[in-house]
Amino acid sequence: MHNLVRSVEDGSEPIGKSGARNNDFLLLAVLAPLAGAGAGLICAGFRLALEGADRARDSLISWSYQWQIAGFLLVVAAAAASVAAAAWLVRRFAPCASGSGIPHVEAALLGEVRPATPVLIPVKFLGGLLAIGAGLALGREGPCVQMGAAIAHRLGGLSRCSIADSRILLAAGAGAGLAAAFNAPIAGAVFVLEELVRRFDTRITVAALGASAAAIAVARAILGNAPDFHVAAVGYQSSGMLPLYALLGAIAGVAGMAYTRAILGLMSLDERFASFPVEVRAALIGAAVGTAAWFLPGLVGGGDPITQATLSGDAGILFLSAAFLFRFGLGGVSYAAAVPGGLFAPILTLGAQLGLIFGQLCVLALPGFGIEPTAFAVVGMAAFFIGVVQAPVTGIVLVIEMTASFTLLLPMLAAGTAAMLLPVLLRNTPIYDALRERAARHTPTNAADSAWNKERNGQSDRGPPVL
Q1: What is this structure's pTM?
Q2: Hey, which bits of 120-277 come out as E strands?
Q3: What are the structural domains, with CATH classification, of the chain?
Q4: Is the Cα dihedral 432, 437, 443, 449 positive or negative?
């Protein structure tokens, strides 16, 4: 009886206890794959568009070299105009499309803000295309997550779902967006459970898995089945290597905390110039990135080609170190532009670079141990992700699915433990929690929003709404 009362109170009544709950669960199980298919379709299109934008940027830069100074000014002006246009789209049509979008999805699940309306989808798509295509170090997963959530929420509204099931659909759609962004179906579902709702529940799990599966089915029909990154086969690592991987994880944890603080610090610095229109500030950032693209065209953009080159293991320590520092700063500057774009892809690039640097140093220090630097690059991706996001299961599953490196699960566990331990002990706030809290402080809530929150939550202010 106690379990039944508890389940009724939190909205998770066991299936079979009532026909209505059975019908609701069946509807949810049908709607989640539909939402996932929609997310997979639009995110696959977004990925193709980004690839086209990257090729267009590279072609423009190569063509402009013949014009020297005039060509340089053209590249800088094009980047500035693209980023300014992205900022204008966000300000004019969908302010919640700014940045990653994952903090907004989390806030919507908590009932703190209104879920995004469908107008977000074209703004996020086009704005992300303009910003990332201009060379900003932003990821595709943020736009994909938020667009997937918007699609799912709209579908829930049209189907007249309950408030709780609408939130479940929203979370499942967000996970489907992540799955399609990185061709990682299990990571999409795990992301919902670990990062978005932070609980394990039958209804949420079924919806998340169904949405991610449908998203991947549609996305792979368009993009193909291969993992995002090709990594040479790496054998199982001996237990004696685990201390080295744990040390890499500790370093990644410290670097992850520094990256989080750099992003927040640069966002605060940008706000000191709030007297200037957001489009002007974005244009200045775009011009700076355009300048970098002229001189270092291979080090700008979302980062997938850089990650793939890093995983090949050919770069030297000095170049890797310089590239890591450059991308570290570029990521923070890019996010401060307040345009659509995520954090995952740049984080994975930095993690691969950090891991390869560490692996190459280990080879120099321990030449007879048969160390494979590429293995450290793969593990570094997961460790740095965990240090920043503090979602260890999502990070490990995501990297395994993106690289097909199943043999490195144990090293990832060792590195992930160390990468998670230090930020938690030092009470470093996870990046998305920090961004959500920051948005709450800087975005005034009017009376209408407050009334909407209470009506939607259906409970007092003493606790977050349940799904």
Answers
A1: 0.90
A2: none
A3: 20-223 (1.10.3080.10), 239-440 (1.10.3080.10)
A4: positive
